[in-house]
Amino acid sequence: MTGRTLSVLATCLIPTALTLAVIHSTGSAGDLGLVLACELIPQLVLLPIGGVLADRQPPQRVAFAADLVRGLVQLAIGIELLAGTVNILHLSVLSVITGAAVAIGTPTVSPLVTAVVPPEARLRANSHLGTARGIALVAGPGIVGVMVVTIGVGWSFVLTAALFLVAATTLGGLKVTRHERPAGHSTFLKDLAEGWQVVRSHRWFWTNLVGHGISNLTAGVLMTLGPLIAVRELGGDTSWVITYQCGMVGMLLGAYLAPRLSIPRPLVATSLGGAVFALPLLTFAVPAPTAVNAAAYFVAMLGLGILNTVWQTVMQQQFEPHTLARADSYDALLSFAARPLGLALAAPVAATTGNAAVLVVAAVLVGAGSLGLLALREVRTMGFVTHEETVPEAVTAAETADDH
């Protein structure tokens, strides 16, 4: 758990560190966009491949390789910055490698949980990981800022590299339960195709992926228009800072509470958790006072914290261990793709239609997309799998319920 926490923290440091590195080096918005795109695009392209690798190989080995590569790349960037010989082409190439390593490492998290944590303890383990990720998201930019001010941007990359390398070394001591793959010959391409078939074969899963994609798209809309409205109409930067921090507290609290709540129907809980994100979209559309926006965003992120924790646990229970990483890779792919799309589209569309129209449409989309999932019988009836049950029995029960 400590190693994965360090890896998550280091991953959250990278975007801010890269941004400051480019600003300190050239100050060009074009260069910054290029470097950040070079990190994102490999993630979108290679996530399904990362899922195949994590299903074909012991996940701790794949995670070790991903952390090691990221650590070495951050070290190389740090050395170049300390030497004063920064080259945007070099940063772009190293960012591509970083993005590829993120894509390879991301799908290993759920397989590691199922290989290390007994079934009855996975909801709590996912809560710990979700809380750690939330803290990293909140603290990451501030940590980078402090490091840049105190020791310089180059040394901040060196310390980030050290976090990755320490995270990699913790994997060596894991006692992993080995999940046997089905007998028979399989190639990498067959496994890649099988991953897509697995996603398509579970209606409850791919429909939720669509819902989560809509949620991430609308989150990108709010992250673009929310700060603009706060600064222009609600009193300045302080308004957005208060609102954002209240949301982060809500997300942490949601991840903490998830294993402590009585949740008999987990997919109903995740649907409701996604739907409440409509609240801050509507309050900013008015726009409401800062206190109302902050309360709405707190509730929305509380729902998201519960959603993420419960959803990861459901996936780990409902998918066979040898297909879990591939399923998880598609979940991550939609998240990685949809939010930047929302960030990119929000401002240009709002310039034509107005902020309120975009925010109201986004609220309707996320509300309808999340609550619409409740129309599926398997979403309404699926429960957590008890540790006495097997995954195939649980899946069969859900599918049988849907047929009646």
Q: Which percent bin holds the helix content?
A: over 70%
Based on DSSP secondary structure assignment, what is the total number of beta strands? 0
CATH class descriptor of the largest domain? Mainly Alpha
CATH topology of the largest domain: Growth Hormone, Chain: A
Instruction: Please describe the biggest sheet, giving its number of strands, its sense, and whether it closes into a barrel.
Output: none
Q: What low-confidence regions span 5 or more consecutive residues with pLDDT below 50?
A: 392-404
Report the CATH superfamily of the largest domain.
MFS general substrate transporter like domains
**Architecture per CATH nomenclature, i.e. the level-2 architecture of the largest domain:** Up-down Bundle
Cα-atom Rg, whole angstroms?
21 Å
Secondary-structure-derived class? mainly alpha
| SS element count, helices | 17
Query: What amount of the residues lies in strands?
Result: under 5%
Overall domain count:
2
Protein name: MFS transporter
GO molecular function: transmembrane transporter activity
GO cellular component, one term: plasma membrane
Main location: membrane
Task: Walk me through the structure.
The protein folds into two domains: 2-179, Growth Hormone, Chain: A (Up-down Bundle); 195-402, Growth Hormone, Chain: A, CATH 1.20.1250. It contains 17 helices and no strands. It has 404 residues and is mostly helical. The radius of gyration is 21 Å and the shape is globular.
